[in-house]
């Protein structure tokens, strides 16, 4: 008679505060419920976008609910750099990243946490390949409650929250970026579908000016900056009003230097 097999561990998708890289941090328990903090404190194996930011997050967790193991005993594995550069899902011309080896601990019965630098892993961040691998291996995937910047921005924008698409980053080349902006505007106006995208903070000002210059006067643009921080700012207005008000130098030095989510719609 064969011995019973070891139950598999679970994969927990652990959201973190949205203040990564910001000068000021919010209170972790203001944006993460106690259940999420307790679950994070119980985990000893992690798959992460960045090990340094994960250790910093776990220190914040420990200040609120003690970790079950000292931080130095944690097993923290970073996703490969190519996943950051090319994304979790490759196109038809290349082989997708196989994250199954990263879940060896879960196959042996240990729960594993998946975490990104900010917000919910696998949403506008690496990690979906790990969740996909867990499903392939029969490992239960459990998302925990916490902030998701794209959904917070969409909810506050006043744009269509029942039909929307997140399209990641726009091209850096000015000509290609303008073409992409107008393509997205066409989709938004034809289908009523809100188009959401993000940018690296130091390029937020350039993207805002490109949007103001390329979009029609009656297209609505929302900019959500520093979400969940005390300095959070969310503005939605037609392009005609953005042109009149613009973004002053002082504004560019404040909210546009924080992580932003941009959204356009009719």
From TrEMBL:
Listed Gene3D superfamilies: Cobalt-precorrin-4 Transmethylase, Domain 1, Methyltransferase, Cobalt-precorrin-4 Transmethylase, Domain 2
What the entry lists under InterPro entries is as follows: 4pyrrol_Methylase_sf (IPR035996), 4pyrrole_Mease_sub1 (IPR014777), 4pyrrole_Mease_sub2 (IPR014776), rRNA_ssu_MeTfrase_I (IPR008189)
Sorted alphabetically, the keyword list is:
Methyltransferase, Transferase
Question: What's the Enzyme Commission number for this chain?
Answer: 2.1.1.198
Q: Span of the secretion signal?
A: none
Output the Gene Ontology terms for molecular function.
Answer: methyltransferase activity
Q: Which SUPFAM superfamilies match?
A: Tetrapyrrole methylase
Q: Name one GO biological process term.
A: methylation
Enzyme category, top tier: transferase
**Could you tell me what this protein is called?**
16S rRNA (Cytidine1402-2'-O)-methyltransferase
Recorded source organism is Ottowia thiooxydans
């Amino acid at each position: 008679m064969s011995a019973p097999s070891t139950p598999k561990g679970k994969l927990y998708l652990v959201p973190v505060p949205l203040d990564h890289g910001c000068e000021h941090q919010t209170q972790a328990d203001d944006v993460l419920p106690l259940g999420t903090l307790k679950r994070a404190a119980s985990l000893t194996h992690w798959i992460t976008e960045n090990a340094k930011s994960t250790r910093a997050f776990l220190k914040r967790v420990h200040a609120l609910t003690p970790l079950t193991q000292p931080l130095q005993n944690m097993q923290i594995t970073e996703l490969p750099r190519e996943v950051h550069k090319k994304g979790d899902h490759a196109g038809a011309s290349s082989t997708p990243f196989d994250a199954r080896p990263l879940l060896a601990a879960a196959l042996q019965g240990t729960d594993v946490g998946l975490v990104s630098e900010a917000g919910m892993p696998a949403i506008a961040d690496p990690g979906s390949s790990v969740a996909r691998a867990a499903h392939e291996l029969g490992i239960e995937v459990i998302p925990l409650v916490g902030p998701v910047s794209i959904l917070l921005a969409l909810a506050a924008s006043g744009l269509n929250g029942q039909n929307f698409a997140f399209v990641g980053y726009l091209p850096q080349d000015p000509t290609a970026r303008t073409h992409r902006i107008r393509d997205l505007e066409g989709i938004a106006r034809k289908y009523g579908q809100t188009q959401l995208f993000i940018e690296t903070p130091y390029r937020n000002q350039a993207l805002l000016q490109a949007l103001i210059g390329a979009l029609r006067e009656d297209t609505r643009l929302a900019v959500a900056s520093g979400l969940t921080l005390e300095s959070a700012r969310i503005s939605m207005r037609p392009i005609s009003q953005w042109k009149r008000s613009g973004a002053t130098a002082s504004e560019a030095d404040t909210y546009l230097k924080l992580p932003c989510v941009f959204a356009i719609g009719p």
